[in-house]
Structures are given as structure tokens and as C-alpha cells.
Amino acid sequence: MADANAENEGPLGPDGKPISKKALKKQQKQAEKAAKKEQHKQAAGGDGNEDTEKEDFAKDSYGKCPMNQSQERVERDLVPVQSLTLELAEKKKDEKIWCRGRLHTSRSKGKQCFFVLRHQHFNVQAIVAVGERVSKQMVKFVAAITKESIIDVEGYVRKVDQKIESCSQQDVELHVEQVWVVSAAEPRLPVQIDDLSRPESEDDLAKVNPDTRLDNRILDLRTATSQAVFRLQGGVCRLFRDTLTAKGFTEIHTPKIISAASEGGANVFTVSYFKGSAYLAQSPQLYKQMAIAGDLDKVFTVGAVFRAEDSNTHRHLTEFVGLDVEMAFKYHYHEVMDVIGDLFVNIFKGLRDNFQTEIDTINKQYKSEPFKFLEPSLRLEYPEAVKLLRANGVEMGDEDDLTTPAEKLLGRLVKQKYDTDFFMLDKYPLAVRPFYTMPDPNSTKYSNSYDMFMRGEEILSGAQRIHDPDFLSERAKVHGIDLEKIRAYIDSFRYGCPPHAGGGIGKRWKQDLLW
Amino acid sequence: MADANAENEGPLGPDGKPISKKALKKQQKQAEKAAKKEQHKQAAGGDGNEDTEKEDFAKDSYGKCPMNQSQERVERDLVPVQSLTLELAEKKKDEKIWCRGRLHTSRSKGKQCFFVLRHQHFNVQAIVAVGERVSKQMVKFVAAITKESIIDVEGYVRKVDQKIESCSQQDVELHVEQVWVVSAAEPRLPVQIDDLSRPESEDDLAKVNPDTRLDNRILDLRTATSQAVFRLQGGVCRLFRDTLTAKGFTEIHTPKIISAASEGGANVFTVSYFKGSAYLAQSPQLYKQMAIAGDLDKVFTVGAVFRAEDSNTHRHLTEFVGLDVEMAFKYHYHEVMDVIGDLFVNIFKGLRDNFQTEIDTINKQYKSEPFKFLEPSLRLEYPEAVKLLRANGVEMGDEDDLTTPAEKLLGRLVKQKYDTDFFMLDKYPLAVRPFYTMPDPNSTKYSNSYDMFMRGEEILSGAQRIHDPDFLSERAKVHGIDLEKIRAYIDSFRYGCPPHAGGGIGKRWKQDLLW
């Protein structure tokens, strides 16, 4: 029993366990080895003064770990930064914990050093102060650790008297007794995480320009905002798939390298394919339709889409991730519009209910209003939109397509009138849609096609497709399309095909820009 | 009340509702219109004999629907073929139901016509026989409907005395009183669904060769086997993502068009990119690692992967769907191997528990044994595998890679010894792995890398990656790689990076072949 007590109070090794004789021996051996390799202090900015080191009673409580080569499978809990709470402080009053994170900032002040330990979008204040367990040399070592280095610290979680406003963990701080550098960052950061995280609204402070941001994408990924954006993106895809899977959809994957430039050949990338050439698919639409003609009934696919559009706008990207849906319907394409409308509502609700932390985090840097939507989704018809726009000064013909400014204005007008940031615009003019779009049965002007909008940005385009091969050929001819080039597509419908409709959500983030 | 009764017993329109006076009027008008357009009988093989038609008392009970342009949103239940069961037959004893499917086969026999109605991998026998509601002309019409046409039928679900062995719905048949062609197939099918569905084992019967199969992929997709394969593929991706999401992984999407051929430039496709060129990414690995250096900690991605390998084997595909994982670990890469091993177990169990119908369906055409696996997964080390192979006649050095025949043999030997179709092979020789693989800390021969196998086929390759930029440069130099070309990659690790490992599952189905 006395032994056990002694162990609890005795020195703890870097593996977090009390140092038994055997372990001590092992540790000493390791320490000697480390000293031999001169890895101990130098790499992290120590002065390499061997005399000082010899006198250092805390020399086994800090240093630079050898490069992790999976030397040993240590069984030690690392408490995540986000779990450092008041509750934990109370629970682990007499017990030290280990925690891994990045050294976000540090400030040395006489015999102590304050630093902030960060993990993803959580951070906590830590202090290492000269005392019974911590030597002067150790404080000096910690003060010299480069920002963004990954460190393991051991210490007590302590309640603070005054909330720490600058940290996510406001109620506690770490009183640190061991510090080990797991992976050191180079001394000079090309750009500071704090600068990358600065709110758009703080006009007086220097902003990081987009080029610098992208040139240092690794650092930019570490901001709370980027962490939240990636989680949200993953969440959108998950909600998309889960909603459709629950409705009996099957996920498919469609070819990206294709043998013929299907949609007329404009805006298509050419690939050298051994001795010949091939093309990059501009959309999975034809394959989705083949899946429908092949009786899969309801399909979706998430994947890369390529467009050779040499324009520098946020709507013209050479590569983006498309979320595509296609569905056989019974009698009317509105059955499909209902499914897609519900899909969006489900995504909006899922984000609102499960990703509020992420949304709040992004809002701190990029302010925006809460997203409004109706349930069921608002469906307008094209003539209503034209009327609304004309009443607000836009001059356009019945069968003209919407310009980008008109779309933006329409978004604002619909928001004013219906209090929704999302709506579906049905019955586009036939003239502005692709050849495979089903014409409206009651009017030669319009078609069974739709776009969907979020805040005045088109985010989905879709339609009932023509499933009759003869009529499809006829419409292709009207559009001046060479039937030979789309023969395989047209032939897909020769052996019976259910009426169907679908659409594609373009997550038009530019992949190149993300990395 | 009398009226209501009359309605229940009165004639039903093609919309499934009893025909009220108003509706009747409407229907008559529609019928006249249809007659005017001569759409009624001719298109589906009717003889166009107007005299016969005029005498036909059932003329409003069958015909060819006009092309669906979403003319009307009909509120009618279509009972799926798979729901046509004994229970339904009892429940709907006095009530007709509507059902949509493909006319799979038909056989005319005097005053009646038997046909099989198919939807996906379900089918049911149907009969239309001359009687009070069905005319001679109607039976003739049904007998002439081309195979694979999509039809709507109305009729009674009736119990059969003897099980219908050739159908999935063995206990019931449909007694049909209305038949409408929704989408007609061309009269001559280039290949029969039954031929495409024939079990591999029936050696005496003609097989469809792969070229014919692929040239008629739309029809091939309609076989029960293809329907099941696509559902299984979707299931694998879902189980992959759900398992990892539950463990806190974030889904990412990585660029496919990249500016530099990263992995040495071999086997890479070149894309014409406006005035310059770009390349197609051979793997998402570098981006996954950037995500780790960017603090996302645990990521996965499902997407297209491109390899310019001009070989005609089932392991060399120019395009496939990769399921990739990357994860920061605390102390040892076996933490990651454990996660991947569990991932596979979860996928195997999920398929076994939720997709047994699909597995059984595929087994009917392509016979295979139930898949065996251990929990937790078996982990062998490379030297053990070499020993096992040598004991069975394979000559190889300690640091030689496994040949494809050796892998297959190893699969069989492991199955014999451990009774598992899945295992993980750890500690590959350093010499046969990419430059970024972490060497074993205890031996210069081996590395912290692994492959995973199913039935002697490598299905995942992975490793602990080098997260130290200086050591990474050193290893790249040893491999003769131009550091300039991988500078961005190496620089990713300059600002601290946690130790990490991962792997990629190559779902090496050839997309081109799928469509």
C-alpha cells in the first residue's frame, strides 16, 4: 500500500505511468541514448549547454521525442482539448492528464511561460512555471518551442477564476509538468493562424490575400473556419446520401474518362489516352439515365465533374464535385421535384440541427444571416418569375433565360415576398434548355424543367428527360446535333424506358483552390 | 348511397378510379383524341382494323399510352411486383390493383395470353383471358406487346394452386383486366435477358460473350445479377462511409486535375488544359496527407482514380473508384491498422446481414462460397508469409515482393491454416514500397507498411507515412526522385505534422466495362 502511494506521488515517466525501478532503468537508458544522439535540447532551440543540462533536475520531463516510427505501442489516454472542462477539472483534481495539441502561441514571463494549446477549433491556456517539478531550463525550453509544433503535455486541469475569453476552453487551464515535442514546426511561419482567422469585418486590420492563403493552404486548413467548412461539406454529402438512401435510391459511380465528347463537344477536356485521345465527362447525366433505362429506378452519384471553361468567375470552374440524382417517376415529373425539394429541406434541417457549432464558427469569420426555408419548398413557375422581375425594372422576353444579375435580384424579391432563401423555379422556356429536355405538354414555349436557387444562386438544374428515342432524335436534330455522335445515348431508350427526371447539384468549389 | 355502390361496381378508368359521369365524358373525349392520333393500337402491333375496333367492348381497357409528358399528376398506387404476395391476395380479394413492370415474356394460347411481368429482380405471372371484361382483340393486343416494353396492368392478385417455380412471386398470379403500354421496346432484342442471366455452370447452353454483354449494357443492367451487383456496390460504399463517420472521420474530396505528375510521372494521363497541360491524379494520397497536416485528423474519400496502365488484366485499369482512408495516430500505426481491420469486418458483416438477397441472387449466376472472416482480423507479418510460401515450394528472397501467383497461393494457404478469406499482411520489405513509407524502427529490411487481402487478391495497400520533411527528402533522394517536383508535398510537413498512416481500397472495376 505504501508502495502504491509512493507511486502516485512519485515521478511520472513520459509514458504517463509512475516510474517503477524497472521502468526507471529503461527510461535512463533511453535518456542516455537520446543524449548521445544530441536530439534532446538542440532541435527545439535549446542552447546545448551541457553543464546546465547536467544540473537539470527536470531533464526527464521535457524534450524532443525521436521521430515517431511506431517504436512502441503506448497505452496512454490523450485527453482531447475539447474535453478539458470544469467537470474534468473536478473529476481529475488529484490526477494529471496527458494532452496533445499544437503550440498556438506562447509568452514567457520570468519564471513562467504561458502558452495556448490548440487542437482543431478548440484551444486551452497552459502554464509551465518553475517549481518543485519544473526547472528554469524547462521553462526556457518551452518558451523556445516554435509555433505550430505538435506537443504532448502532462499536467493538472485547473479551474480559473476569470474566464479566458480568448480560448474555447474558458473555464480551465493546464498546469503543465511535462512537455514533449512530437513534431516541430519550422521557426518562421509564412503566415500566422491568427491572421488567417481574422473576421472579414475587422477592416482596420491587415487581411491575408487569397494568393497567400492558397500558397499556404496547409496552415489555412488549420483555422477554425476551415475545420468547420470541411466538416460542413462532409455533412452536406452525408445528408444528401442518407436522405436518398432512405428513399430507396442506389448509389452509382459513373465513368470520368469517356470515348466521345457527348454534349456537343464544347467545353470538354481532352486526355491523351495511349495512342489515341479520350475526354473528361462533363456530367454523369447520360450514365444516370442509362441506369434508369437499366431498371435501377432511383440513383444518385457524388463525384468529380469537369468543364473546360476558361472563365475566372465563381460559377465557372474546371472541376467540381457534382451531387446528381435521377429517378423514374409514375405519372408526373413533379413527383421528382417533390423528392428533390424534400432532399434540400432535409439537408438544411440536418445542417441546422447537427452542425450549429460549425455554422457559428464560420459566422465568426464570415458573417451571414440564418438560412431560411419553407417546408414544403416553394415552387414558382417561370412566368411568375418574369412578372416579378419586370415589375422591378428588368426588361426581358418571355422566353429569355435569366441573367446572373436577374437571378440575384429574383433571389432578393422571393425572399421579400415569401421569406425563404430557397426556392424551385419550374417550367423554363424550352429554347434555353438542352435538347433532351421534355417539352411542356400544354405549351410550345415552355418545358418540364427547373432550376433551384439558394440566395439567388442557381444550385441545381434539372428536368424531365425525353425517354422516347424517336422524339429524342427529332429534338436533337432541331438543336443541330449530329445524331451519329449521340447514337449510343439515343439507343439506350430503344428497349423501353420509364419516364424519368433528375438534376445535378454543383458544389462549385474549385478543387485547385482548396489545396 | 346507391350511387356510391354503383361507383364501386362500375367500370374503372385507366386512372384506377370508378368512372363518374364527368370522368366518363372526359375519358370519352380522351379516347376520341387518341383515336384521331391513331396512337391507339397500331404502335404496339395492333392490326389497325377499324371495324374490329368499333365492335371491341374492351377498347378502353388497353392500348398504348401517349408519350408521358407529365400531362396529368395521377394519384394512383402502383403496387411493386415484389409486394404481390399471398397476404396481398387475401387482403385485396375483391379489389383490383395496378402494377407497372416490363413484359418479360408472353405466350398466347387460344383465348388467353400468359405473360411474366418483371420489375428489377422480381417477377410475377399474369394472365389475360377472354371473358366479360376482356375481348379477343385485347388478348391479341397483349400477345403482340414486344418484350421489355414497360406496361401498366390492372387486375386481381390471385392465389395459385401450384407454386410458380420460374417466378420470384411463386404463390400468386395476376388476373389482368387492363393493359396499357407506357414505353414500347423495339421488336427485336439484340440479346435476351434470359441468356444474359444464365448461370455460369450450365455448360451445355449458349453463353453471352462479354463483348455482346457490354455492347448491350442497358439490357445487361436489367438482369437480376446486375441489379444485385449495383446494390451491393452501393452498400459497400455506404458501409465504408458509415463506419468511418461513426468513428469521427471527415469526408473530403480531392482534386483530379493536378498541375504536376506527382508520383514520378509514370503511368499518368496528360490532359490538355487550355494553353498548357495538366495531369490526372493517380491517387488522393498526397491530398489526404495534406488534410492530416492541416489538422483534420481522420479523413476518407471515395472517388475516381486514374492510372495510365496499358495492360489488359483485371488488376490494371485506367480508371477505378478508390476508397481511401488517412488517420493521425497517437503512438503506433497499428492503431490505424486496427481501424481498417474493423472497417473491413463491419463491411463484411453489413453485407452478410443486410444484403443476403443480393448475395443469393448473384450466387445463382456466379457460384461462390460464403465469405469467411475473423474478428478481430488476422494480422500476419511478411516473414511469416514468406516462410509459409517457401514451405509450399515458392522460391523467393526475404526482400522480394509477392508475385500475383504467390499472392493467390498465400490466400489459399492462409484460408487452410486460419479459415479466413481476409487477412492483413504487415511489415513489407522497405525496398518494394514507395519512398514516403516509414521504415521499420528495428530493422533496415522492413517497413511500417501493409497490404490487405481477400481471397488472395490484394484489395488495400497502406502504410505509416514519413511525416518528417528532412527524412522524407532523404528517402526521396534514395529513390532517385527529383525533389523539385515534390517540393509542395514535402513542404506540407514543415509546420508540424502528426504521425499518420492510411490506405486505399481499389474497387478495381473498370468503369468503361460497366456501361
From TrEMBL, chains A, B:
Q: Which InterPro entries match?
A: Aa-tRNA-synt_II, aa-tRNA-synth_II, aa-tRNA-synth_II/BPL/LPL, Asp-tRNA_synthase_2, Asp/Asn-tRNA-synth_IIb, NA-bd_OB-fold, NA-bd_OB_tRNA
Task: Give the record's GO CC terms.
Answer: aminoacyl-tRNA synthetase multienzyme complex; cytosol
- Basic and acidic residues composition bias: residue spans: 29-41
Q: Which PROSITE patterns match?
A: AA_TRNA_LIGASE_II
One of this protein's Pfam families, by short name?
Answer: tRNA-synt_2
Specify residue ranges for compositional bias: Basic residues: 19-28
Question: Matching NCBIfam families, A to Z?
Answer: aspS_nondisc, PRK05159.1
Write the Enzyme Commission number(s) for this entry: 6.1.1.12
> What binding partners and quaternary form does the record give?
Homodimer. Part of a multisubunit complex that groups tRNA ligases for Arg (RARS1), Asp (DARS1), Gln (QARS1), Ile (IARS1), Leu (LARS1), Lys (KARS1), Met (MARS1) the bifunctional ligase for Glu and Pro (EPRS1) and the auxiliary subunits AIMP1/p43, AIMP2/p38 and EEF1E1/p18.
Protein name per Swiss-Prot or TrEMBL: Aspartate--tRNA ligase, cytoplasmic
Q: Which GO terms describe its biological process?
A: aspartyl-tRNA aminoacylation
Gene3D superfamilies documented for this protein = Bira Bifunctional Protein, Domain 2 (3.30.930.10), Nucleic acid-binding proteins (2.40.50.140)
> Which superkingdom, per the lineage?
Eukaryota
Q: Any idea which UniProt keywords this protein has?
A: Acetylation, Aminoacyl-tRNA synthetase, ATP-binding, Cytoplasm, Ligase, Nucleotide-binding, Phosphoprotein, Protein biosynthesis
Q: Where is the Aminoacyl-transfer RNA synthetases class-II family profile domain?
A: 230-506
Location in the cell:
Cytoplasm
Q: Which organism is it from?
A: Lingula anatina
Q: What residue ranges are annotated as transmembrane?
A: none
The reactions it catalyses are: tRNA(Asp) + L-aspartate + ATP = L-aspartyl-tRNA(Asp) + AMP + diphosphate
Q: Where is this region: Disordered?
A: 1-76
